[in-house]
Design a protein that fits this description.
It is built from 12 helices and no strands. It is mainly alpha-helical and about 325 residues long. It comes from Geodermatophilus dictyosporus.
Length: about 325
């Protein structure tokens, strides 16, 4: 029962993060299942079955809040489903001894990407409104779907930053479209795992726990996407993923590090993570202050322009005098 409650809370937290950042549900949930000692293929299968429900609910919520571009969903989601189906078969064919470190390496790389991107760059809001090309979305979906199935997560960490980097969509529509198209990816990956592993490869009770928490969080996350500071949240989640998967790798047969080595590595990670979170928070406050200053400057410029127009505009009496002078054959400038 305790495990089920922990999984429900993890599913709730993971979906809050995913719905706000457009990434990290699968990465966060799979990392937790691996920490419980679950077989990598079974962990990914369990998470993807839970994602069928959470992504569907998330998509509906994002659609209700106007965060979805359906053309992008179709162009990236269908190739993503193909890549996820193939990735499920690849992961299922690997032995546990090989699959666990491989999955942890993928998750570690994705966690590092989250930490670095949101700590140093945040979200680029330039060049919005331009159409995203199909020849870009197709390969992106294929790669992101394959990574998502083999790594137990990756659809968001690969797809969301790529669309944000294109600078052609509003951040909220990037997040909403990626979350909505994830339904197709989760469905295809789940079918792939069912064909490769059978139903015994999925822990249905754990999937139910993750699903329950995710369903509660999905509509909240769709609303929070406009209010939560992504920069800070991305740094926090990235650090958690790095720490957990580093622990898995250091304990694996590949490395089997001694206790002093592990503790030294953990200490470095904690120090870097703390510095990243502090930097993200400071940059967030700096960005907010800059946005406020820009808004005040724009308002001041608007008021100054209105005042300038008022000073140079002729009043009604001057206009009437001008019209009378025209009628009398003596036109004069009403601004005189």
């Amino acid at each position: 029962m305790k495990t089920l409650i922990v999984l429900a809370l993890a599913g709730l937290g993971a979906q809050l993060v995913d719905g706000s950042l457009g990434m990290a549900y699968g990465v966060t949930s799979t990392t937790l299942l691996l920490a419980f000692g679950t077989n990598p293929a079974a962990a990914s299968a369990t998470v993807h079955f839970a994602e069928i429900g959470t992504s569907l609910m998330s998509g509906v919520a994002h659609w209700k809040f106007g965060n979805v571009d359906w053309k992008v969903v179709a162009k990236v989601g269908v190739p993503g489903a193909v890549g996820a189906f193939a990735g499920a078969h690849v992961l299922s064919s690997l032995s546990t001894e090989v699959a666990a470190p491989v999955m942890s390496l993928i998750l570690l790389a994705l966690g590092a990407y989250l930490l670095v991107r949101f700590t140093l760059r945040g979200i680029d809001r330039r060049n919005l409104g331009k159409p995203v090309r199909k020849r870009f979305l197709g390969p992106l979906g294929l790669v992101a779907g394959f990574v998502d199935a083999t790594g137990g997560g990756g659809w968001g960490p690969v797809g969301t930053p790529a669309l944000l980097a294109s600078g052609r969509m509003e951040p909220r529509k990037v997040i909403g479209s990626i979350d909505t198209s994830e339904f197709l990816v989760a469905l295809a990956a789940s079918l792939g795992f069912l064909m490769a592993l059978g139903s015994q490869g999925v822990n249905w009770l754990w999937a139910l726990g993750l699903l329950a928490g995710g369903l509660v969080a999905a509509p909240i996350a769709a609303w929070l996407v406009r209010h939560v500071p992504p920069r800070l949240l991305g740094s926090l989640v990235g650090g958690i993923i790095i720490l957990t998967n580093t622990r898995t790798l250091l304990r694996s047969d590949w490395i089997d590090a001694s206790d002093p080595v592990r503790y030294a590595v953990y200490a470095v990670i904690y120090a870097v993570w703390a510095a990243a979170v502090v930097h993200s928070f400071r940059q967030y406050r700096k960005d907010r202050a800059q946005e406020s200053a820009d808004a005040l400057a724009a308002e001041a410029a608007r008021l100054a322009d209105e005042e300038q127009q008022r000073l140079h505009a002729p009043d009604a009496a001057d206009v009437a005098d001008y019209e009378r002078s025209v009628q009398a054959g003596r036109p004069s400038d009403p601004r005189d």
